[in-house]
């Protein structure tokens, strides 16, 4: 079943105003048989969004409307495509209990979800790793080197995989190489292969699947899939289930670059 498992919506404050219906229409047009809406879930209780406009995630008061709109689309398009209600959940170190409480509350209403790392601890606060190159530079300076920043990011991803977030914890781990988003501005003088393989080891041990996310191809300072194709192949060889995700923040990106990884995702996708 051809599935785009990572789609955003107008409920994302930093995204497009394209309607949910326009995303569905694009998926149908591109021959997809299933899609998951995975809007950024409300951030944990007590967490202060560190980005300037505090627009990293949807507002909690909008959550019922988001779910209700998807339910209507499920019925309207039931003969054309399977639509799943999902969220992208942020793993924020130090807010595991609040995240588990939220998942306990919302989990029964979800069909699917992605667990991702965007925020890293930096001093007494947090920084959004992928907000822009200035935030990334701040983290590099805080950690003392690019290699130390990469190491802490991958450590946090591993912790997201092993943390106890309750019965509704997402089993799919999002864009595990997001730390490479600005790699053309901040080129590595080290090899992060072992760091990525450690994440794959942890995912395999915990029975998790991976979000194979093509958004990095559309980012001018990245230009590669998260994770890159050699690691997609390696994950597949280890039997780790894979789900394609366009990470579309506008309807025109639904299904983007699927053909580059379809051979691997279709053979090793998450069981139906």
UniProtKB/TrEMBL annotation:
GO terms for biological process: L-histidine biosynthetic process. InterPro entries: Histidinol_P_phosphatase_HisJ, PHP_dom, Pol/histidinol_Pase-like. The keyword Nucleus does not apply. Its EC number is 3.1.3.15. Residues 4-215 form the PHP domain. Keywords: Amino-acid biosynthesis, Histidine biosynthesis, Hydrolase. It catalyses: L-histidinol phosphate + H2O = L-histidinol + phosphate. Belongs to the PHP hydrolase family. HisK subfamily. This is Histidinol-phosphatase.
